[in-house]
Fold:
Amino acid sequence: MTTKNKREVIFSQLRKDLVSGTWVLFSTKRGQRPDFNKKEGLQKETEQEKDHCPFCKNNVDEQEKDVLVYTKQDGDWSLKVFPNKFPALSSAFKDVNKREHGPFEVIDGIGYHEVLITENHTDDIAEMDVIRVAEMIDAYQERYISLMNQKHIKYISIFKNYGKDAGASIRHPHSQIVAMPIIDRDVYRSIKGSEKYFNVHKECVHCVMIDYENQSKKRTIFENEEFIVICPFVSRVSFEMRIYPKRHLSYFERITDEKKIKLAEAMKYCLAKLKENLNNLSYNMFLHTSPCDGKTYDHYHWHFEIFPKTNTWAGLELSTGTEVCSMLPERSAEMLRK
Structure:
């Protein structure tokens, strides 16, 4: 059978995720030639929009309280972290105030919601120097350690929305840090799936996947001494990427300075490829790491996940919960490596 015929046969495939146990349907016939060029991460900005950017230097100094500021040799700031003006959770609550509401359980939305911004209005991770990306990662760690020691905090979500399609309401490069009194469902499912695999096989499921990708090389986008970037075998969206430490590490907050530089290299490289090869697609990037609730999670393997906005949930996805991906990860990796 020729390679061409093989591709024609494999038009629909279900793959089971080793961690969550969920199935993803790959239906390449639904979009053999997906026109991702029609989706853009950023539209052209007007001069008025730029002048009124709330995160630019002329405006951001009006923020009520900075919780972290990195300065350059000239004394000007290069990075800032401050409370979100419209927080999802509030530190004004003093307790979770757990209570019953009929058959339901309710707690107050205690927590912290912060915004991290870098100085340049147009240069995002794909354009930033590696040392500036590493500085951003350093700020992630510094704020993580500070927030994890606050009362009632069980998990800290670090994420970045890029482009309007990904939910970014402000163009200026920024990330968000949310400290929560709960462990969110997606992370909980990932941790439980990893724990179940470890209990059965006595090894980390993410390490197993990394070893397999190291042998295959079909879905590898980038690697250096410390990190590897892959399109997961069971990708939930086209061009999904994950950045893994090669060595088994469970807690992001313990990252060393040397590893920050290597992570910055990996992060910059794969986001630059996404921008160059796929017309600057919008994306969501977020950290999955062990919770900070005082329990031990040595079986888990922290990583960053990158979800380009290539999929739209419709009838099949909503009615069955089965996600449909229009491109096999092998093809996604091939396009991103160009």
Q: What stands out?
A: The domain at 17-27+35-337 is CATH 3.30.428.10 (HIT family, subunit A). Residues 37 and 279 are 6 Å apart (CA to CA). The two ends are 27 Å apart (CA to CA). Residues 1-10 have pLDDT under 50 and may be disordered.
